[in-house]
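Sync notes, pocket subgroup
Present: LS, DG
LS reminded everyone that the earlier model was apo-only. Rerun requested with 3-acetylpyridine adenine dinucleotide included. Inputs:
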Amino acid sequence: MVKNTATQYDVAIVGAGFAGLYLLHRCRQLGLRARVWEKGAGVGGVWYWNRYPGARCDVESMQYCYQFDAELQQEWNWSERYSAQPEILRYAQHVAQRFNLLDGIDFEHTVKHARFDSEQSIWTLTGENGESLTARYCVMATGCLSKPNWPAIEGYDDFSGPVYHTALWPHEGVDFKGKRVAVIGTGSSGIQSIPHIAVDAEALTIFQRTPNYSVPAQNGPLDPTQAATIKANYQALRDSASQKHNAIDGIYSTESALRVSSEERSAEYEKRWNHGGLTFLGAYGDILRDKKANDTAVEFVHEKINSIVNDKMVAKLLMPTNIIGGKRMCVDTDYYATFNRDNVTLIDLNSQPIVRLYSHGLETAITEYLVDIIVIATGFDAMTGALNQMDIRGRSGIALNEKWQHGPSSYLGLAMHDYPNLFTVTGPGSPSVLTNMLPSIEHHVEWITNCIANMKANEHTIIEAEASAEQAWWEHVQEVASVGLKQTTNSWYTGANIKGKPNVFMPYNGGFPQYCKKCEDVVKKDYEGFVKT
Ligand code: N01
């Protein structure tokens, strides 16, 4: 018999990652009754699932954490400049406990359908387990990178060894000692895991389709004096970050790479390479605007790869030829140096595509590779994947994935016309993945919960984005995306990594400050672009 535990809540929240946790806390602070459904058996979202060796954040720990609670900010101590996954997961677990959130979450609850009943103005979530949850509002806190992308390779069932996706890593870990391992994919997940697997495995073969740009993290223990200095004036760091295009504090030059001498430019790139991290691209203001400026950064990174990797044929294969910063740049520890190890081999899939998996390994167009373990590091169906895999139906009963069949559209990345009382945290059309996710999440959570509280206070029951507002915003998202070089590269930002996915630049590239200002203006004008009843 199907168990029906239908209960009336103000807010149904899907996902218990950083967005879902803060949503639940904020709802409770505002006196809203909320319930979270989470697919995993614990909190942490992306940090719950992505447990592969070497997984760590590419935004510095002192910035990649919540700022909504001053005491939490002061009491938590990060051990490294860039935290590793286990520590970030412990932080999420700490937050859940500290704010007594666990009793508001149903774990191992995967949403199958979400339906809006126009007559009663109620959302009903139905789980894969047959349970249901009803609420006036529904907030999708399902993450931008949460639906793993499995490459369409023949023969998964034929392979006799284990196959692990980096985004679905076993909790007990994987023992690579004495094993022959294949890694498919050289994005951030591959680039972070490869140096670790190489140390343990007997032999590691890396199957690369496209090389990626990676800069060293220059990670290390977090200097306690530096952490104390930040904590003494945390707000200044947060305020400064909120004024940055990507919501990450750092030094970003507005100068042109082409207006300085090549010696000066090299010195600047060298300084940033040695400093480590994503702010490498902040060396000049036109790297992502002008191809010639971009070429100067490309040349520098190519030279670095060439200087690190001993085998010059391998070095050449590792040099990306597309623009730098088109795809999300990777931040690594010892990635390029790993190719100097005797037990590591790089295979270029352009010259020998994978044909199939067979019982003892991988077969390419040229030969067979005997392996014991296969690691799939092929990324995600980003931004829309997690939403589209649920059957979400709004006022007129049209499924969201049908509305989005030619690409997503939204109003502010927060709401969609025809889906009243439904909100998305860091949805397509918001800065999300182009920013530090934590401040973007906090911004959305506060905007959404304030909106719901405002609705209740004014005795409204329905809020829905106007079709015209959604269209105008989406045109703006595309207009902003068309400026500069970023959209010229095929990437998961554009959906190009998923076969058949519409090619649309999904995140908002107008910058975090401009975006926040727009959201603030909408509220000031009594939720301009929304209809409330
Ligand atoms: O995924 P990706 P990811 N056969 O899509 C290759 C975040 N993240 O999981 O470029 C063979 O970047 C594909 O090749 P190609 C971060 O935002 C953050 O690594 O399509 N290869 C590519 O090399 C990041 O950007 C951290 O030709 C195939 C790779 O697989 C995002 O997640 C850590 C293939 C996929 O790279 C995604 O990163 C990890 C096929 N059929 C992730 N299909 C941090 O540092 C795909 N590939 C916080």
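DG: Confidence is low (pLDDT under 50) at residues 1-6.
LS: The pocket of 3-acetylpyridine adenine dinucleotide is lined by residues 57-58, 145, 151, 184-190, 192, 209-210, 328, 331, 349, 377-380, 492, 497 (CB under 6 Å).
Action: DG to write up.
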